[in-house]
Each structure stands twice: as structure tokens, then as C-alpha cells.
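Two proteins, back to back. First:
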Amino acid sequence: MSLVSAARFWKYPKTVYQLSICRPVLIHFSLIFPYGQIEGKEDEVIAQIRKAVAPDHIELEKGIAILAVVGRGMIRTRGTAARIFASMAHARINVKMIDQGSSELNVIIAIGESDFEEAIRKIYEMFINSAE
């Protein structure tokens, strides 16, 4: 029986940018948005962020895919996130961003766009095939 009762995988159309922003005192956050929203305006957006937030570091990365693992069984099951990250590690897929909502119904990861299909296969194998 699978620990995750349902799994949903999605990706933005085409690909997305990941904008990582670092501030003093260990504040670090990422923004993810489709290319079309800032394509051709990257320098302007970064300049506005520098002016508004004065970060120590800004990094803009193209070719990011977003993958969400969703399931009602996740909230009461220990080790779900460990299984997600183990499946990525065994496939040698680098996780670039991690997010989990307070509801604990999903874990969202950002990975390289070229790893998207393999990541889906590995997570599917970890949760669905291993439950059979």
C-alpha cells in the first residue's frame, strides 16, 4: 500500500526562471516564474530588486521545472520527504528548491528542466511501484 494516496506532477509551460535572493542574517528566498513574465527585462527586474531589498546576492537561473508530490497520506506518515529526496539522490538529480505547505499535503521541489521526466519516474517508482 502506498504511503501517498495520490500523486500529482506538473510543470510550467516551457520552463521557468528561479530567482534566488540572499539577505544578511541568513535570509534566503527563491521566486519562480515563467520566462514570459520577464524575458528581455531580466536586468531591469534585478535592478529593481537590488534597489528595494539590497540583497547580498541575486542569482537568476533558467531551465527550472517544478514538481509537486501531493497526497492525503503524507500528513501522518513519517519519512515521506526522505523518500522523495532519496529517489532524487539515487537518480543523481539535484534539488534546487524545496517547499512544503503547512497542511503537509504536498512537497514541491524545483529541479533542472532536463531532469523532469526522470524525476517523475523515480518518484512514481518510490511511491507507487514500491507499494504493489
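And the second protein:
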Amino acid sequence: MKAPGTREPWVDAAMSFYSKHMWKECYHAATMALEIKDKQLVYTCDPLVWGSWAHDLASISAWHLGHKDEAMRHCRDAIEADPNDDRLKANLKWMEDALNSPAEEQAGSQPDVDQGSDTVDGEGERSSEGSDGSKTD
């Protein structure tokens, strides 16, 4: 991995694992990104990796791995980083509701990762969408 001391390659790896439903690897890469606290001010620095993205991926993968409390903690951290992201808020509510509902209602359910204003598109790229669903970037 090039530049393992920066968040960008770890978040890229987490996104790749996410798209392949490789939850353990996704969680590892996302949490490795989050361990990096020194934001290097270089031209390759991507502001997205310093926002909610790594916490979002850690939350989703933790949920799939059965680490419900960890998933909710990362989701709360993602919301703290991006308080205007309605999808993150909806994911947290969904997780809370899932934990408070009977087990048979939870079977097969997972947090939503593909709706809201800031989404992960089918090609593993973060994008913004307008209210009509059209991409704005």
C-alpha cells in the first residue's frame, strides 16, 4: 500500500472491501484510517476521508460482523462529523429500532448505504445527489 501513514489509501481499501461485501477487511481498513490523526497538508489530501466516510464504513461493516454497539458508536461519530447527512441519521435510527425489535423482525436487515444526499454509488465512489436523484458532482 502506498502512503500507509495517510487516510486516503485505507479509506480506498475499505471502500473496495465494502463493495465486495468483505466486512472484516472493510472494518479493519476503516479503523486503520481512523487511527491516523495527523492530517498531512499535501495536494493528495482528500477532505472526504477526514469527514464521516471512514466512520460510516466502519459502522456498516461492524453491523454486518455482528458488532452492534460498535456499529452504533461509529454511526454516531459519523453523524458528529457530518450532522446534515440524513442517511447517517436514518441508519442510526434503523440500528436503534433493530436492536429494540424482536429478532425475527431483524433477520436479513442491514443499514442502508445507498440513499440520502451523500451516497456510495455502485462504482464505489462517493457522490452527491440532487433532490431529483441526479448527481451534482
